[in-house]
## 1
Amino acid sequence: MLWQLLSIGVGGALGTLARVGVFAVAERFGSPGAPIGVLTVNVLGSFIFGLIVGLAKQPGGIVTPLEKTLLVGVLGGFTTFSTFAFDAVTMLESGRMLTAFLFIVGSNVGAILGMWLGIRLMSV
């Protein structure tokens, strides 16, 4: 258990460093003020998350401890948006359309409102 926690922590640090690097490179190619770095990290992280989940489902695919290190650690440090995307796709694939819709809308609207409210409260 301790080894798993340590590997997730190291993975998180590596994911964070990768996020900073990818973000910096992406920002060089974007327009000033456009959040191209955030978009790049979120889309790339979701794509990599999907690759790992797909590989884990294959016979002889990656083992659970490595999967957790990569998904929770590395990609958790890289982007949490990939987890959101995975949860939404899982709901859609299982036919829970209303739940998926409420989750997608609620997460996005809730996060934006939460950010706005937090900023407003701190500027008073």
## 2
Amino acid sequence: MITESAINTIIWKPITLSDRELFEKTGENKEGIAMFGFPSLFFWKNYYKTSFAVINGNIVCRGLSDSGKCVIYFPRGLNNMTEDTVRSAVDSCDGKVRLYPLTEDTANKIKEAIPNSNVKLLDGKCEYVYNQSDLANLAGKKYHAKRNHIAKFDKNYVYEYIEVTNDNLDMLAECAEHLFNKIENSPKEEYTAIKCAIEHFGDLGLRAALIKVDGKYVAYSIGSRINGNTADIHFEKADRDFEGSYAKINNCFAKNAWQDVLFLNREEDLGLEGLRKAKLSYYPAKLNQMYSIEIF
């Protein structure tokens, strides 16, 4: 049983690039959950004030929610379901704690193990996971509209699809800055995360591509592999003045960058109805529905 003195000696550390190997060795992201990927944890660490500790051989991350409450990310490792691991992480925070992201099965198991906990479905925290082959090929009647969008783009514009490498990384930075300024109401905190991703592109094992039309930056996409068969599309932006640009970068990136995975996790809809409809229009193969537990 974890003692009070043991809880007090838990050391929470900021996440650094040197921790990537530790994260990847401690526990595979079998569920393919985007938030569990080291790149996402790293380039959002300043916004969410994320730190981590090793408890019972498991990696446990904690941070702050948008409302400023303490959040414990579900432990990663072989012993992550033990009550001691969960309880010791929770007890290191003062007051009410939210533990997430959890699958429904995991949430219910923790609720059984820990009294005074409340399971809650997280609206807007559902991750949309697609077959790579579906997004790459857009085959069948259900993707007819998407193929039309791409056909219009191909007809109207002479474009370049450019794979990003360390040698042309400056192009990605320029493209990201251009679209941040071009797209109305672009979140500054997201752009900060994007700049962090670009700055540490190689160290984080990222892949990216961009599209130019007549020398103008039109779209880009950035992703990383989060387990043996799944990639996470972290960021994707396009200039809507170029009709079909979103459909084009989506299709090109899936087709050219991710032939070595089965699934593409295109993350959450953030509770936005328009974004939800857009994600559903690509017919996800599965939904990673997220739950949380509040522990008092």
## 3
Amino acid sequence: MNVFVARQPIFDRSQSVYGYELLFREGLNRLVSGESGDRATSVVIANALFFIGMRGLTRGKRAFINFTRNLLLGEAATTFPSDQIAVEVLETVRPDGPIIEACRRLKAAGYLLALDDFAYQPEFAPLIDLADIIKVDFLATSVADRRQLVQELRNGRIRFLAEKVETKQDFEMAMDFGYSYVQGYFFSRPDIVTARDIPGYKLNYLHTLYEINRPEIDIDVLERVISHDLSLSYKLLRFINSAYFGLRHRIHSIRHALVLLGRDEIRKWASLVTLTGMGEEKPHELAVLATVRAKFCELVARRIGRGDQHTDMYLMGLFSLVDAFMDRPLEEILTELPIADEAKWALLGKPSSFADIYHLALAYEEADWQTFGALATRLGLPESAGPEIYRQAVHWANQIFS
């Protein structure tokens, strides 16, 4: 049985990750709705707990999971400790007596209750009294409704979560209206500035990226570039001596670390560290997302027999968010980076032999299972490989940022 599980970050007002909503599907030929909803949620609970591992999926943050009527009545949420999840009551659940009583029991046991895709109706008053979080869909509500819901239902206990927040302007609106949390990909959008506004340290990072990724670079040049950057040198030695590698003896020289890792692995690692350094004032999740994308693209390439392109695929995923790190147009930045043309073309939406792998990564990330299935078939990637590749990519990112 193949269970597809993706995640979407939920941020607090400081843009730190508060939790993740888990988005799932049982196989690409099944719908997670109607009668299959109970079964699919049961499967994702078991899958997260026993196969992927809750902490691996959520990095120790709270998991928001949708629960159908039958799962609420069956107290399926008690599969998890109360401090690990938020129970999302779907908007399709009718708040009758048995549901209200089930929610009261969950609340008494310490579970967090969230009302999903909320639109006020009088019959929901008993659920509102129990709710900890009310989720408001910013794509489906007017500006007036977004404000009015908070003004009318705020009681000092209920917190409001704006979901499907895709722009910086909507994020700022949510903050102005008093929302405590936001969910969406607003954080991965660039806030374009003019060249004269770019801080000098970002230009230095861009120069380092250029040097690291020149096709003709050799170990000697790599050693010189990294040795001249104190931060890179420190992070490289810390990385090579981490538990991830399990070396018996500590490595003390940049040269030794480069020889052990090899040119391609060093280029991937140094590009990641340099890119994340550019975004030190950005939400940490931006670096995590770029890392997961990069590893996902690399692992897909290896799986479908294109392992000779794994470094280019990795860099394609990593640099897919470079515009958000730099707050400059993507096309402008890519002209300054010596990465494979096919990677550049894919990122810019032009015809490219890399494009399907890039869009496959985006489809999984966004839980667009229909697009993912079509692209996987075209690439010759078995359905069962998707969840495992995603799990490995998330695990690898967790290791990098632990």
